[in-house]
Write a structure and sequence with these properties.
This protein is an alpha/beta fold and 879 residues long. 45% of the residues lie in helices and 17% in strands. The protein contains 29 helices and 29 strands. The longest helix has 28 residues, at 631-658. The chain is globular. It starts with 10 loop residues before the first helix and ends with a helix.
């Protein structure tokens, strides 16, 4: 057995162990244990590892390693998403550098270029996952555009089409004029925009009256087909059914009444442009209004607006329309206005709501079934609040899903048109029209929304539509771990598709995690320049430390601010594990050479009974925390047990025997006990800190090839010892209090104390039994115990756990000088406290200063008050 190196160097061990694990097949499901399955949210082939991935993968890996150690047959299934629009845009940018457009290449050649890029440069995130220690089954790696998954996608599309759930029609969609495609709501996040609210007068035909419309988009008025008011708005009730002249066009349009109109917005009158606004589109359907498309796919005005505006960009058209309205005295007023506008997240282009001929999936029947599955508990959200209610609200109000995209990279829709415009949808490429038999066919140019193939992920990756062994064994999966921003766009759709095609929910638990933000709580983005590369953190702090820090910050679905102090603390913890293990291994002697798994050597000593009980409690708490997905709690329990109980106390209490030069039976038993606690602790830590635990475990006596497949510790009621825990806590509190007295009184470290204690009989017996440990750890020369302490001059006094403490100070310190020092310190703190109190009483400071500055001032003031109370007590003890 080789000893551990003096310094912990994570980079020297991480990759070595990862390759060993992978080569040994430990990541693959094995044995007859109950299956446990996690399907990874497939990262985009264009992406690289970010902090959200690092958090998510830490959670999934911790669960996978824990369940694997429990004997489950674990499949953590990896994969990538073809990232339709992101990949196409990226490759088009590369082509642009060569002076080539995709249209120059043609569809087939362009697709080949994307595949080529994927082979050469894609998949970076999969390579980076190895640095994380992700124990995914690489032999089952899946790609959403691979032939087997493409067959699953086509099968799903055809079945849904045959059942009448998929159809083609004109509907309003989010349109990106730059990328020339429809996009989902997820890809069109709202951003606040400083703009204007223009009030425009629409003359009422046959009267001298005008009706004033307030709008943020005057350029779309050229496509108005009505103006609308609320049916109960008395201001305009006399105009319902009237006709107004649409300014700048000469067209007549009706005044209609609709309950969707918000009376409080603007003037209470809205223009209705069914072809360019989602709400107006629905209103247009209700009132049978025509749809006039005035903005084309390229974002320029169409021929429908007349020659004065045709061909203008949207922004140019807006300026000219406003100019012309002013010239005709129809612009009543202009107000500064801030509102939210959808932008394409890939290119930043303002999206254009537009009526477009697209393919749609009627998800209402599927949503009803998926809604019931959550309500009856077949799938649960963690945390339950608020995500269950949010999911339910979305599913209750779900709209048809636009599943087509005007791209070349993706799953091409399996629909063909003949010259008679009949549609043939087929699992295989047809040779003739299913309606008229024509042999002249052309395939639909559009591809499917990337989310369509992702919705099939939990079962398509296991071999569906074939009845495979993997599908039977590993579906449904267990935990789906994802961020809250894609509950609607992925989780809900996997629920619908899983229930539709498999008849069972795709997972029993949806664990929602928060967003990893920067140290200031800001969302990370490349635009802000505040992104943090996880690989850089792995290099600085070690992968285990980063994983442990992330787990410790994962409180429910709360967002978390990533602070370096957390990483430093986790790195210090890893160093503590290393150094404590090094001490144990260096002193094992015969206990190590036998190389058998350490067993607990019987002992009646209080410290031994206590650490066994604490270890048992830790096993119980960590297991429960992982079962309930409380990663932060598991991390905190492990930290405090290993650092506080094991390192700070048990190692120190055991050191005289463990590090003894003579090898007696008692010494060997002590070494076996400490090895047992350490080895068990490493197995507890392994799911969160895989690399360091494997490296140390291999140097300890153990059974098996790897800690990865060693049994996860199990708690036993027989090892609970409340009496030992209570008694040990009494001793710890006493020793800690004596150490505090030494520190507060500025007693030199080498000075031995005389300790007077007043304690009841039971506690006094405990102290006498452990007097040697108290003397050694508190550096006390003599202990005198009585029922109650008498008054003493110049003695530090305190009480802890019902024990009175007195430490005579004569001869240990210069009492006069110490009193002077403490008096000066008290005066300094009083002055600082007065200054802070004065600031906090100043309303101007409290109301105008940044909140964090005010809170910092309040916290410091409270801290000073507490410190002054302690100084007063210390001064009192000095007379």
């Amino acid at each position: 057995m080789t000893e551990l190196s003096k310094a912990y160097e994570p980079h020297s061990i991480e990759q070595t162990w990862y390759e060993t694990w992978a080569a040994s097949g430990y990541f693959q499901p094995s044995g007859e244990g109950e299956p446990y399955t996690i399907a990874i949210p497939p990262p985009n082939i264009t992406g690289s590892l970010h902090m959200g991935h690092a958090l998510q993968h830490t959670m999934m890996d911790a669960l996978s390693r824990w369940r694997r150690m429990q004997g489950r047959s674990v499949l953590w299934l990896p994969g990538e998403d073809h990232a339709g629009i992101a990949a196409q845009v990226l490759v088009e940018r590369h082509l642009a550098q060569e002076g080539v457009k995709r249209a120059d290449l043609g569809r087939e050649a362009f697709e080949q270029r994307v595949w080529q890029w994927r082979e050469e440069s894609g998949g970076m995130i999969l390579r980076q996952m190895r640095r994380e220690g992700a124990s995914v089954d690489w032999s089952r790696l899946r790609f959403t555009l691979a032939p087997d998954l493409a067959r699953a996608v086509r099968e799903a599309f055809v079945r849904l089409y045959e059942e009448g759930l998929i159809s083609r029609g004109a509907y309003i969609v989010n349109w990106c004029p730059l990328d020339q495609t429809s996009i989902s709501d997820l890809e069109a996040p709202k951003k606040e925009v400083q703009s204007h609210l223009w009030h425009i007068a629409y003359p009422v035909k046959g009267t001298d009256e005008s009706i004033v419309v307030a709008t943020t988009r005057p350029e779309t008025m050229l496509g108005d087909t009505a103006v609308a008011v609320h049916p109960e708005d008395e201001r305009y009730s006399h105009l319902i059914g009237a006709t107004v002249e649409l300014p700048l066009t000469g067209r007549d349009i009706p005044v209609i009444a609709d309950e969707a109109v918000e009376r409080e917005f603007g003037t209470g009158v809205v223009k209705v442009t069914p072809a360019h606004d989602p709400a107006d589109f629905q209103m247009g359907l209700r009132h049978n209004l025509p749809q006039v498309v005035v903005i084309g796919p390229d974002g320029r005005m169409t021929a429908a607006v007349g020659t004065r505006y045709e061909g203008l960009d949207r922004a140019e058209a807006r300026a000219r329309v406003v100019e012309d309205l002013k010239a005709q005295n129809l612009l009543v007023k202009t107000e500064e206005y801030t509102h939210s506008v959808g932008h394409h997240d890939r290119c930043g282009t303002v999206i254009e709501p537009m009526v477009s001929l697209q393919w749609f999936l009627n998800v209402r029947p599927l949503a009803d079934v998926a809604l019931e599955a959550v309500r009856d508990g077949r799938t649960r959200f963690v945390p339950v609040v608020p995500w269950t209610k949010i999911y339910e609200d979305w599913m209750e109000n779900i709209q048809p899903w636009c599943i087509s995209r005007q791209l070349w990279w993706g799953h091409r829709i399996p629909a063909w048109y003949c010259e008679n415009n009949h549609i043939t949808v087929s699992r295989t490429d047809p040779t003739e029209c299913a309606t008229c038999g024509s042999g002249v066919l052309r395939q639909e140019e559009d591809v499917l929304d990337t989310w369509f193939s992702s919705a099939l992920w939990p079962f398509s990756t296991l071999g569906w539509p074939d009845d495979t062994e993997d599908l039977r064994r590993f579906y449904p999966t267990n935990a789906m771990i994802t961020g809250y921003e894609i509950i609607f766009f992925w989780v809900a759709r996997m629920m619908m598709m899983g229930l539709k095609f498999m008849g069972e929910v795709p997972f029993d638990t949806v664990l929602i995690h928060g967003i990893v933000r920067d140290a200031h709580g800001e969302k990370m983005s490349k635009m802000k320049g505040n992104t943090i590369d996880p690989i850089t953190l792995f290099d600085r702090f070690g992968t285990d430390a980063v994983r442990f820090a992330l787990a410790g910050m994962a409180v429910g679905s709360n967002d978390m601010a990533l602070q370096e102090s957390k990483m430093e603390s986790a790195r210090n913890f890893a160093n503590k594990i290393w150094n404590a293990s090094r001490f144990v291994i260096m002193n094992l002697g015969e206990a190590a050479r036998e190389r058998r798994a350490p067993a607990w050597a019987p002992s009646d000593a209080l410290a031994d009974r206590w650490i066994l009980a604490e270890l048992n409690s830790t096993i119980e708490q960590v297991t429960r925390a992982l079962e309930e997905y409380r990663f932060h709690e598991a991390a905190q329990v492990l930290y405090h047990f290993f650092w506080d109980d094991f390192c700070d106390w048990y190692i120190e209490l055991s050191k005289p025997l463990v590090a003894a030069r003579e090898t007696t039976e008692e010494v060997v038993a002590a070494r076996e006990r400490i090895a047992y606690v350490l080895e068990t602790s490493l197995r507890l830590l392994h799911p969160l800190m895989p690399f360091i635990t494997e490296e140390i475990w291999q140097r300890l006596p153990h059974e098996g090839e790897s800690i990865m497949i060693a049994p996860f510790p199990e708690a036993s009621p027989e090892r609970e010892d409340a009496k030992a825990r209570d008694e040990m806590q009494t001793l710890i509190a006493l020793i800690t209090k004596i150490r505090n007295i030494r520190s507060e009184m500025n007693i030199p470290a080498r000075s031995s104390l005389k300790l007077f204690l007043g304690a009841p009989d039971r506690t006094a017996a405990l102290i006498r039994e452990n007097a040697d440990q108290i003397k050694r750890l508190a550096r006390v020369e003599e202990i005198e115990i009585s029922d109650k302490l008498s008054q003493m001059d110049a003695a530090a006094r305190d009480v802890v756990g019902g024990i009175e403490i007195a430490v005579p100070l004569e001869g240990l310190i210069d009492i006069t000088k110490e009193r002077e020092r403490l008096t000066k310190e008290m005066a300094r703190k009083e002055a600082e406290a007065r200054g802070l109190a004065s600031r906090l009483e100043n309303l101007s400071f409290v109301e105008r200063a940044p909140r964090e500055v005010v809170e910092q001032a309040r916290g410091r003031h409270a801290e000073l008050i507490e410190e002054m109370e302690k100084l007063k007590a210390t001064l009192a003890s000095l007379g």
